[in-house]
Every structure is written in C-alpha cells, then in structure tokens.
Design a protein that fits this description.
single chain; about 325 residues; alpha/beta; 10-stranded mixed β-sheet; 10 strands; about 45% helix
C-alpha cells in the first residue's frame, strides 16, 4: 500500500531535482514519487527517466507539455495511488528523519483505521543569501500529536497562515473537493491551501520540520520584482479563491473553520493589493478593482465581509510595521 504520493512538478530542474527525489526515496516502498516533467528544455526528462528505471516500484516519470506549476499538481493528483497527497517542488526537499516520523504516524493510524483528512507539519525557510533558516511551526495554534477538530484550534496571528508546504491532504478529499488548479499561473499554492480545507474535519499536527523550502534566489516567483510583474496572475488566483466558496457556505462551518477561511482569504487579499498597486500603472489598478466589482455582483455578503476584514488587516499591518517589529 502506498501511504503518501509525492508529486514533484519539475521545469528545467536539472540543478535541483536529484536532491529533492533522493530525500523522498528515504520513505521506501510505502511512498510513491511522481515526477511531472512540465516541458523542460534541460536534462530534467533524462533525470526523471533514470529514477523511474532504477526505482520502478516507487518513482513514476510523467512528461507533458508545459502548463505551469498548477498543471503539474493536477497531473500528479490525477495519477496518485497513495492514501495521502503532498506536493514537493523540485527545488525543495524533505528532512529524512521527519519523513520517517510522518510515515510511522500515518502507518499507525491506517492500521487503527483512524485516518485524518489532513496532516499538518512545520516547514523551514532555507535562506540562500545568508545560509540561515526560519522554521514556521504551529504549536501555538494546534494540539500536538493527537487528532483534533477545528473547534480545538486557536486563531492565527496576522502573519501566520497555512501554506502548501505544511499540508498533507487525504487524496480522495482533494478529488471530491474538485481541486483543479489553473495552468500557466504562479501562486496557485494559495488555492491549493484554501479551496479543500473547508472540507477537512479530522486533523493531526506533527511538530516536525518536514519541508525544506529554498528562498532568496532571483528567479523565484515570490521575489518582489516577480510578484509585481505578475500581478495579473496574482489577481487570477485571488478571483478563484473568492469564487471557491460562498459566504453562506463558509458561514455553515464551525466558528474556528470560518475564521481560518477568512484569515487565509484576507492575507492573500492584502498581498494582492500590495503587488497590484505598485507605481502608477492605471491598468493594474483597474484590474484589481474589477475583481472587487465582480465579487460584489456575485456574492454581496462575502464582498462586505472581505472589505471590512481586509481594511482591518491592512490597518493592523501598517501599525505593525510602524512599531518597527
């Protein structure tokens, strides 16, 4: 039985792919690794095929036309045979000891027929420029090492929120949620985090530093320059998030899950605001306000909720920065 499918969307990843896949291979035959070669022009295809040939019971190499990161996630989910699904970008990796702990935990829960909808772990920012690291952990918000529901969690602070790197979803939950990410679009990890989470009920948090995320390279999508340049893609992601669930659907959930949904939406909305209102570009501002108009016409209650919460979040952020924190 495959406990976890790891999807590895890969584009021109020859410099990083081996480190990523080698870290995942430590999971042994209980894991499935799907390397999705997204139309690479370097040796990515060759490397992926070599792994698939050497580890035929663990690694699958899939080659497709370029469709972007979301397309790779979609293809991995389509083919996944594991009970759980996790995305690991080809330039990142996982900690071997933490992976062993995660697999031990999942294996025990499967044996006891106590499967979670979602496993949550820590992730680590590995800063390229100064070789430092920062761990994002959730010990202040979730019970550690036991099953819990959203009512047992605590509200997150301003800059704390869940990311794709911290999530291991049950595969069938993602499929039933109808998760399909847009192609040729950056920042789709925000959709991946937000859209399915409303369907989760049984959660389990492990205080382990599983995912290792490189940050600081100039070619990354999360640099200020790239996010500013790709503002239309940021708005596209925000539109999809706002359309994923109605106000009434969110309000039907328990209080803490409602708070989590709005928290995720507002944080990404503030990010969208900053990276679409840089400079005096009239077109980008018009596109941003068109998004708000579209929401107002479609779901007036969610529009009012988001306007109010986003303004409060924005003011809190300015106050936070003004105090030099």
């Amino acid at each position: 039985m495959k406990l976890i499918t790891f999807a590895v969307p890969s584009y021109n990843s020859e410099a990083y792919l081996e480190k990523c896949v080698d870290s995942l291979l430590t999971g042994g035959e209980e894991v499935e690794i799907i390397i999705v070669n997204d139309g690479s022009k370097d040796r990515t295809r060759e490397i992926a095929d070599a792994y698939a040939a050497k580890y035929p019971d663990i690694v699958r190499a899939v080659h497709k036309e370029n469709g972007g990161h979301g397309s790779g996630v979609n293809k991995g989910l389509e083919l996944a045979q594991g009970l759980y699904y996790k995305v690991v970008d080809s330039d990142d990796w996982v900690d071997e000891s933490a992976l062993a702990t995660l697999l031990d935990t999942v294996r025990e829960h499967v044996r006891e027929e106590k499967n979670a909808d979602l496993y949550i772990t820590n992730f680590v920012y590995e800063h390229v420029e100064d070789n430092t690291r920062h761990v994002s952990r959730y010990t202040k918000f979730f019970p550690v090492g036991k099953f819990f529901g959203w009512k047992d969690s605590k509200p997150m602070k301003l800059w704390n929120y869940l990311l794709m790197h911290s999530l291991v979803y049950r595969t069938e939950l993602l499929r039933k949620a109808g998760l399909v990410l847009p192609e040729h679009t950056f920042y789709v990890d925000n959709i991946y985090t937000y859209q399915p989470i409303i369907y989760t009920e049984k959660l389990y948090y492990l205080d382990i530093d599983l995912y290792r995320y490189f940050i600081g390279r100039s070619d990354q999508s999360v640099t200020v320059e790239n996010m500013t340049k790709r503002y239309s893609q940021q708005i596209r992601v925000m539109r999809i998030m706002l359309g994923a669930h109605t106000y009434d659907e969110i309000q039907s959930k328990c209080k803490r899950l409602r708070q989590q949904c709005y928290h995720q939406l507002c944080n990404i909305m503030v990010t969208t605001y900053f990276f679409t209102t840089q400079g005096n570009d009239k077109a980008r501002k018009e596109e941003f306000y068109a998004m708000w108009k579209e929401l107002k016409q479609r779901d007036i209650k969610l529009y009012k909720k988001m306007r109010r919460m986003s303004m409060i979040r924005f003011l809190n952020m300015l106050s936070w920065k003004g105090k030099g924190r």
